[in-house]
Amino acid sequence: MSREMMVHVTPFEVHAAILEDGALAEYHVERRKDRSIVGNIYKGRVGKVLPGMQSAFVDIGIEKNAFLYVTDFFEEFADLKETLDVDVPKGRAAKPPARPPEEPAEAETAISAPPEREAVETEAAPAADVESAAVEGTAEAPKKRRRSRRSSRSRSRTRAAADATAADSEAAEATPATAGPLAETAVEAAAGTESLPAETAATPAEPSWTSPWAQPAADAPEPERDRTDAEDGTATIRFPDPDLTFCASRPRGGRRKRKGFNLAGEAEPGNIATMLKPGQEIIVQVMKEPMSLKSARITSHISLPGRQLVFLPTVNHVGVSRKIHSDQERKRLRTIIIQNRKERPGGFIIRTASEGLSEAELVQDMEYLMKTWDDIQTRGAAESAPCLLYQELDLVEKLLRDKLDDSFQNIWVDDETEYAAIVNFVERFMPTLLSRVKLYSRDASIFDHFNLTPEIQRATRQKVWLPSGGFIVVNHTEALVAIDVNSGKYVGKGNSFEETITKINVDAAKEAMRQIRLRNLGGIIVIDFIDMQEKKSKRLVLDALTLELRKDKVPTKVIPFNDFGMVIMTRKRSASALEKNLSEPCPLCGGSGFTKSVSTICYEIYAHVARMRKSLEGTQVEIRAHPNVIRALKSIEREVVAAIEKDFHRPVVLIPDSMLELTAFDIVGI
Is this model's pTM higher than 0.85 or not? Predict the structure, then answer.
């Protein structure tokens, strides 16, 4: 796949577009006076503590206090094994605490993101268990039954479910060729794990400093748990994509033991009121932008990403990107990190960009990240809350750090200052690509020259046409994103209705994923495909969806077709969607997309005249309204005028006024 980056700079904004094989795939905008705060590290002061919600609001110096959930904050000296959920004894399953109110629940049967997306190795289950988990694909073993009375029918159903799961597993193992890409995804993801040496296992990190204002949590960034337990009773964990800008997020996946429970599976006190007090000062990092009515989401689990490494100050863990396939190279990189971090607490995630680098280059990145953390600690001890301790890179540098690789053929920029900054960045981290950075100096806008402006304008429209003649409709609501697939103009080329519908759905799956990336849609996403009857047709659509998912680095989970022909997915959301950044709710309709019809307004005029009949002066009724309403009163709704004249015994004078809104009108007696 060939990629290009276009950077357009104005005095007020920076625009960045990424093209994949000539098609617009991503579009980002950053306003100079309104930069993203995701990844920023603040020293904040606790405001309200809400024990009933197990959360707190923290003043970090922005407009609204940030939201801190209890699982995103732990005392500095808490046992790290408990916060990492490792070494869980067999047969003891802890019930997880409730999710924060604004976060969507994730289904247990979700399919993990494709293997092309970065993952990181940690402690892995034995090979037999990994293989079993891989062939099962999306199926999970039935939950362990509680020791309670159940009817014989309930017990028999449980046994039947277990037998069916085992049968499906055996069938998948016997016929791997027909499993399809979704099952292959699980196989490839599981096959890439390996056990870490003892010294790299997740162990408590001794605090390198004593905080004078709080006891922040010592925790790892969002381990994502494998669904198979090891034979020795330990639970496997998997870190999220290390090439994401910000790695510290909450665990993903269905069955998992959440923080706040000890290794025996017994509930700990975990009351946020005992951890935080109003006025207390703590160090936190922003993990989600403030969106709509929601405050910014923060965490005390710090993560500092670099080009080659991600530094985790609060956990002794070394992980390696799964995109580095060579066992020898993974071992070499891990050894370099372990040897050079010495006795210094803190862990690292080795990113894909580290592959093939020398020890000196890796050590340089290590030292830079550790020094950055030292500076943050020093400033935090000296400054009073609320204050900014560390600011994340700007838009262009962040994209270069997280996405730049050999697949980029050109990096076009139309501003000399930004061009010099990009050259300096590429020369430092990827000097072999320096010749691909080019300054655009023509009079026409760079987006106009590459014909991107029309595509960007279409990115905020609801209807998107497909190459086949069908179309999709994208509706972004507060709760979820709904994408509806329609056949449109396409009537097929053969006599098979199933073939026609499958063609439209395959095109829709590709375009839907492109629009999701382009518009930066997140949260719960529901795609309503046209109903298909055959399983092979549904498999073709899921295959197309999976291929497009591999291009997206944002963590995504997909639930296959349900009984209603819908595919449901969850996509990590850390920033506002493109539509929210570029537009605002309509002042006329309040963002609903609907306004009163002309007929409704005409009938409201009659009702208003009826209420005013005793207070109207003069001998005539003057109605001043929008021209569209006046036209309706003279034509399709002329009965309204006749009724007013008959019931109130006054002639009506109609005056159009284009300065009035459609729903506004003025009635006076003359």
Answer: no
